[in-house]
User: Which sequence fits this backbone?
């Protein structure tokens, strides 16, 4: 009986388990106010390179292809990480490089955002603390 | 139309070629039209497909505003000859383009595709527009349809030509040859149709059978000719028999009557004189009785020969039957003297002994002469008087010639 319930849970899990939400974070002293999803996408895809306030946004991302990165792009654009990488491959072919800086983990992310007023990053909603400003919750 | 066109060969060629040209032409037209329309549609679709292919790159270029990618997309599209201008717009008003023709009159048609952001399908990123040169698509479709149609026409005409060649080789030409040969052949001669060299066929059979018929006809005609000749020969024979004596070959009574009439007619017309001599052999009956009929017959033949050689060619010697002979002597200058001279000659000739086999036969003759017109002007009286004169000669002791005298008739 236990086995059956477990199996059912396993089967149902992809449907029932929603992806954990992410928080788009910036420096507490930055002049970023509420960002739209589209602005976030445009910044991370290298399209939006200068804000109305005059700030040059510095998107920060994670090194390698960790789960959080996959989730970020998926929640934001509905695209897989592979598709995003393909986009960048296509772009870098023309000489335009990915502007995102790559970090090791969420702790480094929080620290980096805390030190740089132009930086934009993302962490699990639960990790976002008072050292940073949460601009948008991506679910 | 000339005679040549009436030949089977020419009619066949005309029919096969005209029908294949007609069918081929119609099929070609239909196929050309269908292929042309299809290719035209396909040409337009190709441009759309081409645009679909580059759409993602174009969307990236529009989204990111990347010049190089935009150029790449535009150059790629411009490689297609039918595309004369490509314009890529994005939502932030950026604009890239390339165009072979500044003049858009040639390419009035614009195909426009909306570009969406690669990261948000609901967000419009820009437009990709191409101007298409329809004349190039048309000329491509035209060339393609033309090739297809020509190929089809060849495909239709070639077999027709092959079929025509085969039919003419195996059927019409042999029939023409056969017909010409048969036409030239004279029935009943040795001429025959030449047998075709190739394998047995209905035509070979026809030729063989025709030759058989020709053979039969020749036989029949030869038979008939032989029969005709036989009939002619018999006719001549019977005609001769009707006018000649069977034993001696001398003219018979019927012919004698004709000749006598003829002499009288000529005599009247040209005032000619003539004579009629009746002749009876003396002592013939004893010869016949003692030596037999065979010897008698041979004797009669010999007599006939001597008589014939004793007179002129124009004279007639006839045998009336038994040992009775008669001579017609037309156109005498001095009737009395001439007739007597011939009579003497005959008397002398027949007085000579005859050698008949081992027998030597001695006979004599009694002749009665009637002169024309002195002793009669018609057949009847002349004959009667000659007969009377002969009777007189016998009365006077045989072996003599007696000229008719009016006293005898009393």
Assistant:
């Amino acid at each position: 009986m236990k086995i059956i319930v477990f199996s059912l849970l396993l089967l149902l899990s992809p449907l029932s388990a929603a992806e954990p939400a992410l928080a788009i974070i910036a420096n507490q002293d930055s002049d970023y106010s509420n960002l739209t999803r589209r602005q976030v996408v445009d910044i991370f895809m290298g399209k939006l390179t200068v804000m109305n306030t005059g700030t040059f946004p510095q998107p920060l991302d994670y090194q390698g292809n960790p789960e959080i990165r996959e989730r970020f792009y998926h929640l934001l654009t509905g695209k897989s990480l592979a598709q995003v990488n393909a986009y960048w491959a296509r772009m870098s072919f023309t000489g335009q490089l990915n502007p995102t800086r790559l970090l090791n983990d969420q702790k480094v992310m929080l620290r980096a955002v805390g030190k740089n007023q132009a930086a934009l990053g993302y962490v699990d909603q639960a990790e976002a603390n008072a050292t940073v400003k949460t601009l948008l919750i991506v679910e | 139309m000339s005679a040549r066109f009436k030949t089977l060969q020419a009619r066949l060629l005309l029919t096969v070629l005209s029908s294949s040209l007609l069918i081929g032409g119609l099929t070609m037209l239909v196929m050309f039209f269908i292929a042309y329309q299809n290719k035209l549609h396909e040409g337009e679709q190709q441009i759309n497909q081409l645009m679909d292919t580059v759409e993602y790159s174009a969307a990236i270029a529009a989204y990111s505003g990347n010049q190089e990618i935009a150029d790449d997309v535009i150059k790629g599209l411009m490689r297609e000859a039918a595309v004369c201008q490509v314009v890529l717009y994005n939502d932030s008003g950026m604009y890239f383009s390339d165009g072979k023709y500044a003049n858009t009159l040639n390419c009035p048609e614009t195909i426009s595709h909306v570009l969406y952001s690669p990261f948000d399908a609901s967000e419009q990123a820009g437009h990709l527009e191409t101007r298409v040169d329809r004349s190039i698509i048309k000329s491509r479709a035209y060339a393609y349809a033309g090739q297809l149609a020509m190929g089809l026409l060849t495909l239709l005409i070639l077999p027709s030509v092959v079929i025509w060649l085969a039919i003419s080789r195996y059927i019409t030409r042999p029939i023409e040859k056969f017909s010409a040969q048969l036409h030239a052949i004279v029935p009943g001669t040795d001429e025959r149709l030449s047998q075709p060299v190739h394998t047995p066929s209905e035509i070979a059979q026809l030729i063989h059978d025709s030759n058989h018929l020709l053979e039969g006809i020749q036989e029949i005609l030869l038979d008939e000719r032989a029969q005709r000749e036989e009939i002619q020969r018999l006719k001549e024979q019977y005609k001769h028999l009707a006018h000649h004596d069977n034993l001696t070959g001398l003219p018979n009574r019927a012919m004698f009557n004709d000749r006598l009439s003829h002499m009288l007619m000529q005599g009247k017309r040209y005032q000619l004189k003539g004579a009629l001599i009746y002749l009876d052999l003396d002592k013939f009956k004893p010869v016949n009785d003692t030596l037999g009929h065979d010897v008698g017959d041979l004797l009669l033949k010999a007599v006939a020969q001597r008589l014939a050689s004793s007179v002129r060619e124009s004279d007639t010697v006839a045998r009336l039957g038994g040992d009775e002979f008669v001579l017609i002597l037309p156109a005498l200058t001095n009737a009395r003297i001439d007739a007597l001279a011939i009579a003497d000659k005959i008397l002398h000739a027949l007085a000579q002994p005859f050698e008949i086999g081992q027998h030597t036969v001695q006979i004599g003759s009694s002749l009665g002469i009637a002169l024309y017109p002195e002793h009669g002007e018609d057949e009847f009286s002349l004959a009667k008087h000659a007969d009377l004169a002969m009777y007189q000669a016998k009365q006077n002791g045989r072996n003599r010639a007696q000229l008719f005298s009016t006293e005898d008739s009393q």
